[in-house]
Design a protein that fits this description.
Length: about 350
């Protein structure tokens, strides 16, 4: 009797493990509306910004597009909702947006107390300071008594206070609600320094009338792991967003690009590549998706490295070193969970 019951339990567990995920409320809504509603920054060069025609682009935009390609079959079926740092977590928790891809720092407070949950780290960053060259400052420790422009509602506001207090330095903040207002105030000379993530400072410098007049100081004072987040509770959608990003990153690891994905689909005998391009095992069924979900991401959006090069690389206006955002095989922290 015990043997029979044990065998039945094992069979039941195996069947459950092999069965596809069932859609939750968020996924049902996305499919019913045939559109993904994605929260993005109001303006963050490299991550998300809109041109004069309302066309959005950037790394975070491509995270949204990857999910749309996987779920809806079309990376362009995204509605972008620009959100300030005081709105973004509430907008996600309340259902105003389906997912958040807004160069947002993954912290314990945001992950454990807002009704939301982070999915992955899509960009490793750190908080730094930018100053006018005319100020003659070469180190953060020379900013004792400075006025600092900072955006309210960000982790930057708190970490700035922590840094100055712990180093016995005085400062005065000038705070603004939006990225654009904070940047504009600094560039117009209202503050001695502007503090934000290193990538954001590089973006601000590109919109200055004369970028050569500003220096980013060498010190970083925090860890800023940025990444997409979803509403807590709809674990099916959580898995789709997580594995859409992992497919995006795995594609770079495996050398699959937007340009060669069709050739790889026809010729590759590597089981890892075959699973990714839809010619091997059907991995989509575990997510409630079809077999070509990850192929569409690469075909329509590309891979992580392609987005990095376009928006942050040496030919981009930001021209940032890839640093910690290199693949783990190149000495960086980007490490994709295996699709198998």
């Amino acid at each position: 009797m015990k043997t029979t019951l044990l065998s039945a339990a094992v069979v039941a567990a195996a069947a459950t493990a092999a069965s596809p995920a069932f859609a939750g409320a968020v996924l049902d809504k996305i499919r019913a509306n045939d559109q993904l509603v994605c929260g993005v920054n109001t303006s963050a060069p490299g991550f998300s910004s809109a041109d004069s025609k309302g066309h959005w682009e950037g790394l975070d935009v491509n995270l949204c597009r990857s999910v749309a390609a996987a779920v809806l079959g079309n990376a362009d079926k995204v509605k972008y909702v620009p959100l300030s740092s005081t709105q973004h977590m509430t907008a996600l928790a309340s259902g105003q947006v389906d997912m958040l891809a807004r160069n947002t720092t993954w912290t314990m407070t945001r992950d454990a107390s807002h009704g939301n949950v982070f999915v992955a780290v899509s960009y490793y960053d750190g908080q730094a300071f930018m100053v006018p060259k005319s100020l003659g400052v070469k180190s953060l420790k020379e900013l004792d008594g400075a006025t600092v422009c900072v955006q309210t509602g960000t982790t930057t506001e708190k970490t700035t206070a922590d840094y100055f207090r712990s180093h016995g330095m005085q400062y005065k903040t000038v705070v603004f609600d939006t990225t654009e207002a904070t940047q504009g105030a600094f560039l117009s000379g209202r503050c001695d320094a502007y503090t934000s993530d290193m990538s954001d400072l590089a973006g601000v410098r590109t919109v200055a009338q004369d970028p050569s007049k500003f220096d980013i100081l060498p010190e970083t004072i925090t860890k800023e792991p940025l990444g997409p987040a979803v509403r807590r509770g709809d674990w099916e959608f959580f898995e789709i967003v997580r594995w859409s990003f992992m497919a995006f990153l795995n594609a770079e690891e495996l050398g699959v690009t937007q340009a060669n994905v069709d050739d790889m689909r026809k010729t590759s005998k590597d089981p890892n590549v075959m699973r990714l391009v839809g010619t091997g095992e059907d991995m989509g069924r575990m997510l409630g998706l079809d077999k070509d979900w990850s192929y569409r991401i690469i075909k329509q959006v590309g891979n992580y490295g392609e987005s990095w090069t376009k928006y942050f690389g040496p030919t981009s206006p930001l021209n940032l070193p890839r640093g910690m955002n290199k693949l783990w095989t190149d000495g960086g922290l980007m490490y994709a969970m295996p699709i198998r």
